[in-house]
Every structure is written in structure tokens, then in C-alpha cells.
Amino acid sequence: MAASERSIEKEVDMGSSFLQKFRLYETRSSFYMIGRDKNRTSWRVLKLDRTEPTEVNIYEDSTAYTEAECFETLTRIHEGNRSSGGLKFVTTCYGIIGFIRFLGPYYMLIITKRKKLGELCGHTVYGVAKSKIITIPHASVLSNVAYSKDEKRYKRLLCTVDLTKDFFFSYSYHIMHTLQRNLSNNVEGHTYYESMFVWNEYLTRRIRNNVKDCMWTVALVYGFFKQVKLSVSEKNFRLTLIARRSRHYAGTRYLKRGVNEKGRVANDVETEQIVFEEAQDGNPVRISSVVQNRGSIPLFWSQETSRLNIKPDIILSAKDPNFEATRLHFENLGRRYGNPIIILNLIKTREKRPRETILRAEFANAIRFINKGLSKEDRLRPLHWDLHKHSRKKGTNVLAILGRLATYALNLTGIFYCQLTPDQRGDGFQNQNPSTLENNNGECSTYDILSKDETAPNLAVEIGDDSKDAKEDQQKEATMLQKGVLRTNCIDCLDRTNVAQYAYGLVAFGRQLHALGLTESTTIDLDNPLAEDLMGIYETMGDTLALQYGGSAAHNKIFCERRGQWRAATQSQEFFRTLQRYYSNAYMDAEKQDAINVFLGYFQPQPDKPALWELGSDQHYNAARFLANSVPENSRSTMKRSLSESSIISESSPAALGPVGRHGVAEKDEEVKGLSDSAPEISTSETAKIAASLSAPPPTLEELGLDDILENDCFCCDGNGEQCTCAAFDLDWVSSSGNSCEDESYGRSTVVRSFETIPESRKIESEICVVEEADSDNRKVNEEEAISGIPEGYVKWVMDEDGHFW
């Protein structure tokens, strides 16, 4: 990606391209929203009709007014409506979130207060500090339905979605896309609202269908955003951590598990770590990013919420023998990030009562089955490592081992790095929507493969382009691209997953700082203050994501132990977080799930149809569709209850789908869209030249010390019948003793499986090894961890919950 290819033309006054502050006025018959740009040079008018009781008609004035002309227009409106009360000021706002209707009138959601969270490439990122819901029709035309109990309940339900927590947006930067994608493409259009990470896509559909552009609305991303200023060797830089939660198959812990029929998984979160140096006037700015992913195990499985059992049964369906949904999920990851797809699976390998282990075996079967149909270069690369087991062994440095796994993954994917010239940042960097990307077949240049004495200033390469711009840029450093992604999962994808993501982020952090020329080494020691700073940010992110999906802060035992926190305090904290999560899952998640379904438009109320709260759990409905004793799939076809309305095809044009297109899973509103969310369109020839200058074969597993493998879950074969190199690895070589069993005392749940007909070959492959022996060392640890004032047996039972205390 040469500088000339990344160049974005600078307009005379980019501040006029985005409306950032609005004033809402009303008359008896209309709302008038007046929007202005940051520099107060351009004023626009939007009109909303208030005379229709159940419709909303939106009219955009295409004229760009000056401040005086806008004031004159408002004066004329006031004079023309004087007989009915004139023009009245309603509120100041900072963008429209969207429009929604339940059974009666339309409502408009607006942001009335914002807070600055940080800046990217000179573009401000805001959080929602306060919002308001406004009824569109005038009170004189409202029907009795607007005052009905059901209408009021739907309105209260919508208001339970707290927009002031963890929603963020930017007027001029596409925060729903990765940095690599934003700097790689420049296409105008509305389709960036259809990104899987824009949570108000449904709410903005009506206005986007009526106005020329999206200057009146903001695209809300849900997840986590944190930016801090750090320094190394007296050089300042900024570290930004972004987590984007997918709106597809979104919901709460026990109500959204596994995968749906379109390949969407629960708790699907993209994490991006961005590092850039402080800008100097007139000088290019070096910037780097790395992306990783977490998501539920992509199989058809579920757990029923129970108020009587803190460990609900795991229900695993085998109604998808060819793993079509699993394959769709990984094909989508490939289109978004490229290959390779590295899977770090952290669930347990052995249990006294099989729970996680049955999912582990089925997941391994799915990966093996999918890999048989892929070329060697495109095969999934699974790594199975039982974090729970190894974290309980004395003398095991879990973070160090995860760091070695992260090194292996980063050697394959690389990081993104480039320089931004002054006209590519700030108001001069207007990144339009990259909605029609093609697959990137270029090679990725990894940074870690360089010799230790090579620093960023020595990496300049000349881009082979005869254009004038290329000659002027020939001294600039080569751009590096991330190609592929690490996908991490445990059971909930919260606690263990967050520890692994921190370890990956730390390894990437060292390479990013080195690429920026801030450090001589590509690694950061765990005892380095920078590692402590990064751990704090990942811990905060983990707590935030856990509260969103699980109902409590994350279990941070490993982080607490790393900081030397008092063990009794840690155990007490973890215990009460477990109880908090149980209470939230059992008593609050149903209403929370209903609110999410209404906000995202997955449930749309209709007169004379059952209300949302009269329906059963949508997770139960989704799982039951694949069980032998389930009701017919079309039994609820009369209800608008779309569990995950967007197909996995939504981020790719048919020409780029490959084998996916044969299954016809694209929906009507998802035709011919751009490639989703991270894979950029960059010159293959240029990338190849960069790769030739910077790359060498990445270190193998053996070179990284990951060759002592006890268990192999992938038995793909190449053309010669040899076992493939993409096999899964259960890295039990870290064990310091021969006893690798963990204590599963007080395990009370069983694994429930549907009894459909399963091929004999898969029955054999799915057998689970149940270990009955107990680890005496672990029993001793549990006895020491008993919390005073609470029966020891109950504490041990709670502590052995999935993912809790590992």
C-alpha cells in the first residue's frame, strides 16, 4: 500500500463536511432540526412531519445556509406558525441515534450530551453521556394505542438499554472499522452503517432511506474504548484499545450461546490495539495496529438459565453433521481478516463430569472436518491449551506460556504499520466508507522476523512506482499489513479469554513500539512498567465486556496474582463476582435480552400478535430447532422475531463468496455488499515487494519451543497421505508433574446431548475421556481457599464453575 494509494485528497475546509451540533425546534405540525459543522460555516435544515399518528415523514433541505440565513429561515417559520403557537426550542443535541415504532407512534432517539474519549488520526471519538427519546406525532393526533400498557412497557424496555455505558461514535472517523481498513479504502456511501459493529443500523434505516447522506445520524459502536498517554525513554505515545461487539446474534450469557444457522456466534468481539506517536507539526506520524477476535464456540450448543442450579446443563446438538454453520463462521473470518485463522481454544481437556470436554471434542471434530476441504495454505490452525488446568499448577507461568503462543500467532499474521502525512490526519483525513472491498491476496510483512539490531528507521524501502508521488515518497518506510487473525475462546469467552488476549496484546505491543522506533527490542518483559499499564487496560476491558455479556466483572485471578494482591482478598472478590453473575443470569438476563432484541430490530411488535414478554426464551427456541423433539421450525413464522437477521453473506459480494454462495443464505436486504470489516484492498505487487524486503520464513513451533506435543486433534492429510502441519496442539509440555488431572469436586451438572442419528465415525471421534482421579495438590489449594463465614463445600462448588477461578 504505497503512500500514493493511501492518499486522500484534502478539501479546502473539511470541517464543513460533518454536522456536529444540532438544535431541535417544534411547531404543532413539524419538528425542525438545525445542524451545523464544527467551524460554524455551514448550516442545514431537516424537517419531520408531526401530523401522521403512525408514520414518520422526513424531508431534508439540500441548501447549505450561513448562520444569518439559517436564523432568517427560522424567523419565517415562526411567523408562519404564530397562530398555532409559533416555533419553540426543544433541546440541543449532538446527533440522531435513530427512529423506532412499537404499536403506536414513531419515536426519535437523540444524543443530548456527549463526552470525549480520545482521538484517532486527529478525529475525536465520543461517548454518549445523555440521551433522550422524543415522540414524533403531536399529542393531538395520537391514538389510544400510544397510551396503552403494552406501548408504555415497550418504551420502558427500550430505555433499559443504557446508551451512556460503552457506546461510542465519531463524526469523521469510521470507528466501526479497523485502522488498516480505514487507511486502505476510500468509497462513499451509506453502507458502513451495515457493518456488523454498528448497533443502531436498524434504528437509522428509515432516515438513511430518505436523506442524501448520513450527516444527521451517528453510527454507534458498542463495546469498549480506552485511550491513554504513555512514554518510553522520554518519548510520548498514545495507546488505544478498542473492543467492538457484533450486533449479530447479540445477547446475554445463557440466552446466546454457540452459533446460529448463518454462522454468527454469540459474544463476538473484535479487539484492536492501536499505538501511535505524538504528532509533530509538519512531520509524518507513525501508527500501528493489531487486531484479534473472541467469540463463542461455533457449534449448536446452549445452556438453560436455572434459578436452582448455578451450573446449567450443557445442551449440544448434533443436527449439523457437516458443520455448515461452523464453516460459514470461519469463512466470514477469512473474508474479514484473511488467512491464516489461528484458533486458541482454552477450554478444559479433562473433567470428572464431562462438560467443557464434550464441546472441546466436537470443536476438534468440526475443525478436522472443515480442514479436509481446504488447501494447506487456507486450513484452520487450532491450538488447544487447557488454561484452567495449567493455572492451578504450582510454578507454571501462564502468561509466559500464552506469550509464546502469541509469538507463534503474530509470526503468521503480522501487524499493521504505516506513516500518516499531515494531510492524512486531522481534518484532512476524510475516510469515506470502504464498502466494496475485494479480497486481499497479497502477502503480509511481519515485523518480528527482522534481526534484533534492525530498528524502524533502517527499514525504508523504495516503492516500485514511476509516478511523481512515488518518487517523492521513496524515502518513506515500508507499510506492514496484518493478514489473518487469532481467534480465542473459552466457554464464556470472558475470563480465560481476556487473559489470553492480554498476553497476545503484550507481545504485539513490543513489536508496535519497535516499529514506531520507540524501543530497540521487539519484546516487553512482564515486569516492565509498560506491561503493567497494558494489563490494567485489558483488565478494565475484560470487566466491561463481562458485565455486558455475563452480568458481572471478569474473574481476574491471574492478574491479581501477578500484581501480588492478597490472596484472601482475591478469593473473596472472585467468589462474590460469581454470585453476582449467577443472580444476573437467573433474574435479569431475560429482560435484558428482550431489550437488545427490540433495540436491534430482531423483534418488531405487531398489533394482534403476542407481545415480546409472552414469548419463550429465544435461545431455547433457537436450540430447540435443532433437537429431535422440537416444534416445527415454521411454527412461529407469523411473528417478526428474527434471531439474527443478517446473513453471513452480508459483508461480501457474490463474486467473492466462493463456496459460500452455493448455499443461498443471503437475505433480501444483503445483496452485493462490501467485504466486512477488516480486510483491505491493497496492491498485491506492492505488498509483495515489501514482503521481499522485510520477510523471511517465520519461526516454526519447534523453534519457539512448542514441539513437545502430547495430543493432536487434527488428522488432515495432504496429497501424499502425510499428516498436515495445521494440526491442533494440546500443549501439556508445560506440566511440571505427571498428574495432569484437576479437581472437579462438587460438579453437579451433566452434559445433555440430543440423540439424533450420528455417523459411526463421528461417534468414535466424539468419545470423551472422563478422568476419575482427583489432584491432591488442587484439593489442598481449595481447602486453603475456603472463605470464612461460608460453608466450605458451597465455596468449592461455586469456585469450580466454568471459567471461575480456572
Automatic annotation (TrEMBL):
<dbReference type="GO" id="GO:0046856">
    <property type="term" value="P:phosphatidylinositol dephosphorylation"/>
</dbReference>
<keyword id="KW-0378">Hydrolase</keyword>
<comment type="subunit">
    <text>Component of the PI(3,5)P2 regulatory complex at least composed of ATG18, SAC/FIG4, FAB1 and VAC14.</text>
</comment>
<dbReference type="Pfam" id="PF02383">
    <property type="entry name" value="Syja_N"/>
</dbReference>
<feature type="domain" description="SAC">
    <location>
        <begin position="158"/>
        <end position="551"/>
    </location>
</feature>
<dbReference type="InterPro" id="IPR002013">
    <property type="entry name" value="SAC_dom"/>
</dbReference>
<keyword id="KW-0926">Vacuole</keyword>
<dbReference type="InterPro" id="IPR043573">
    <property type="entry name" value="Fig4-like"/>
</dbReference>
<feature type="transmembrane region" description="Helical">
    <location>
        <begin position="89"/>
        <end position="109"/>
    </location>
</feature>
<dbReference type="GO" id="GO:0043813">
    <property type="term" value="F:phosphatidylinositol-3,5-bisphosphate 5-phosphatase activity"/>
</dbReference>
<keyword id="KW-1133">Transmembrane helix</keyword>
<keyword id="KW-0472">Membrane</keyword>
<keyword id="KW-0812">Transmembrane</keyword>
<protein>
    <submittedName>
        <fullName>Phosphoinositide phosphatase family protein</fullName>
    </submittedName>
</protein>
<dbReference type="GO" id="GO:0005774">
    <property type="term" value="C:vacuolar membrane"/>
</dbReference>
